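Trying the structure run again after the queue cleared.
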Amino acid sequence: MSALAMTLLRLGFLFLLWAFVYFVVRVMRSDLYGTRITSTASVQAPAQPREAIEHGAPTSSRPSRLVVIEGSLTGTQIPLASSAILIGRSPSCTLVLDDDYSSSRHARIFPQADLWMVEDLDSTNGTFVDGERIFQPTPVPIGVTVRVGQSIFELQR
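Done. Tokens:
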């Protein structure tokens, strides 16, 4: 084998060895430090139309936002629309928690008829509504607390 081929083979092997070390360190870092949360800026709920305010129309008794009232994301607000809100540590969740006591896909809050329901997604530590662990989809009235890991939420107008 020529000297050039042997040098290229050595450099290729060295490159593969460093790539392996890089990926091992990257995996260990993600295991130690968890998921990186890029933004925790709160989202404001849509304002009530001016016509309703001017004409004295009653405000809706339906909740308009999910608010984190305790935990690392305190003050975060998510407007309630017609789609479900997925809560957990996974970056694919609507509300990403940086909490060792929550599962990657921990709970789901979703509309059903005129109610908002919360469902535990087979999490390890459970989901609690007003202090009681739930095992099936449960309605969540306005002002009642929902605990997922170390975070507490409530629906607000």
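Confidence is low (pLDDT under 50) at residues 39-54. Worth checking whether this holds up in the mutant runs.
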